[in-house]
Amino acid sequence: MRRDVLLFGPAARMVGRDRITLEARGPTVRDVLAEIAARHPELAPTMGAARLAVNHALATPDTTIGPDDEVALIALLGGG
Amino acid sequence: MSRVRVQIVDGPLPREPSSFADARSDADEEVGSRIRFEGIVRGTEGGRTLAAIEYEIYEPMASRQLEAIAREESARDGVRSIEAVHSRGRVAVGEISFTCEVRSRHRAEGIAAISAFIERMKLDAAIWKNPIFAGGR
Q1: Residues A21-46: pLDDT tens digits?
Q2: Which of A13, A57, A79 shows the shortest C-beta gap to B122?
Q3: Which of A5, B13, B30, B33 has the fewest beta carbons closer than 10 A?
Q4: For B84, which residue in chain A has the nearest alpha carbon?
């Protein structure tokens, strides 16, 4: 399933845009993270601690992502 | 019961104390300590001169996270209220980008609550710093 993933901060600067589109092998957060790492090696410095937010909440690796869910890469945070 | 309030505002934060210091909370007879932390944009990062930081915030996720953290930290014994305000967008060097104010029975739990709130915010909240270096470099 093709899906968009929103990017922010350093991750967006590394890729050069604030949204990527990819086709993951499966429907889980783990599948999408693996696909991001495979398609975007420039994000390697961020992927070690990267998580996904699904519909504005941090998701576990086993979370299944629905077709209309909003997905965002949460990495290299730095508020405050 | 403890009170919490979280706010995201555009640009730098005012230097004066927040409106949360209203009559009702000041009248709380259980409050013996009020601690206010201000985060200020430093002039350098990694040895380079900064002009500002652009704060990028993913909403409504960030507000929900900050409120959840505030609620959990306000459940500490003795904590009476937590208010946190974070900037969105450009904040110049020397300006305030974040404040956290905690009222508590004693100072120790207030200091602990502020410290824990900030640590958890930096770890989990969907907020990013984009440095803007002097000279545009």
Answers
A1: 998 888 999 999 999 999 999 998 88
A2: A79
A3: B30
A4: A80
